[in-house]
Amino acid sequence: xxxxxxxxxxxxxxxxxxxxRELEGRVQKLESGDLPLDDALKLFEEGVGxxxxxxxxxxxxxxxILVLSRGPEGIxxxxxxGSSE
Length: 85
Fold this sequence. Notes:
By secondary structure, the chain is mainly α. It contains four helices and no strands. The chain has a single domain (16-83), classed as Helix Hairpins (Orthogonal Bundle), CATH 1.10.287.
C-alpha cells in the first residue's frame, strides 16, 4: 500500500511535461528491443501509469479551460460566437 501512496505523491509533484518526457524515455527503451522480458514488462507497466497520469492532467486542463471560457450567462463564449454567425 505504501508503494501506491508514494507513487501517487510522485505523480502529484510531477508536471505533465515531465511525465510525458518520462513516458517517451520508456517508449524508446522498449522500442530498442534489447531488454529482457521482465524489464520490458516493468517499463510497459510504468508507461501505462504515465499514460493514465497524462490523460488525467489533460482532462483536468480541459475542464479548467471549459470553466474559464464560460461567459456570464454560463454559455461557452466560443459556442456563443459560433452561433451568432
